[in-house]
Amino acid sequence: MSPGSAKALIDAGYIVHVEQSPDRIYKIDEYEAVGAKIVPSGSWVDAPEDAIILGLKELDSDTGMPAHDGEHRGDAAGDAEAQVPSDRR
Question: Which residues contact 64 (CB under 8 A, 6 or more apart)?
């Protein structure tokens, strides 16, 4: 999710959490600037069951996935670059 998309969700009344990560296309400051809450890496595992989780990174093979109804993996196969606008690669 881009910072612009995060802002649109925040403006619509959603609370958006963005995990800290050294491997990201957009800078964490861009998310913070639009009002997203920055949370520690890996904290999605303890998210409430009604949380909507979006992700583009591969999971460790032993991580497993919690039961979240709103979970969406944009790229569980590892080709996240293909999902990023060309000017951000």
Answer: none
Domains defined for the chain, CATH in brackets: 3-84 (3.40.50.720)
d(CA 15, CA 31): 12
**pLDDT (tens digit per residue) in 27-74:** 999 999 999 999 999 888 888 888 888 875 555 555 555 544 545 455
Dmax (CA) of the chain: 36
Annotate the chain with DSSP letters as a single string: --HHHHHHHHHTT---EEE--SS-SS-HHHHHHTTPEEE-TTGGGGS-TT-EEEE-SPPPTTT-----TEEEES-TTS-GGGGS-GGG-
In tens, the pLDDT along 16-26 reads 999 998 888 89
Q: What is the pTM of this model?
A: 0.62
